[in-house]
Amino acid sequence: MLDTEYIKRPPASGSSEFPVGTLIVKEATGGTIPHEIFAMAKRGGGFNRDAPGWEWFELQDQPVVIVWRGGRETLIEMQRD
């Protein structure tokens, strides 16, 4: 499997956390599912206190569409299915 990762607004050297506005996208190819794209966005305020400010996404391309999005609760619900 081949993973490609992209990051917008990485933390400064020596930081202990990612800044608000950080976007991380991971594209995985060649696994059991031929092509998967996942993303994380660091939100501000009190968003998703269980995973300090992170929102997760699954994307599809051509055209780019958000398949699902959410915080920790969404991931837990998906694991139950």
Explain how this protein is built.
- The protein has one helix and five strands; from the N terminus they run βββββα.
- It is mainly β.
- It has one domain (2-80).
- Strand 4 (54-60) and strand 5 form a beta hairpin.
- The model has no long low-confidence stretch (mean pLDDT 81).
Residue share in helix: 10-25%
Query: What gap, in angstroms, lies between the N and C termini?
Result: 25 Å
Low-confidence residue ranges: none
- Tell me the strand order in the biggest sheet: 1-2-3-4-5
Largest sheet, strands/sense/barrel: 5 strands, antiparallel
Number of domains: 1
Kindly report the average pLDDT value: 81
Order of helices and strands: EEEEEH
Q: Which structural class fits the helix and strand makeup?
A: mainly beta
Radius of gyration: 14 Å
Number of helices: 1
Number of strands: 5
What is the percentage of strand-forming residues? 35-45%
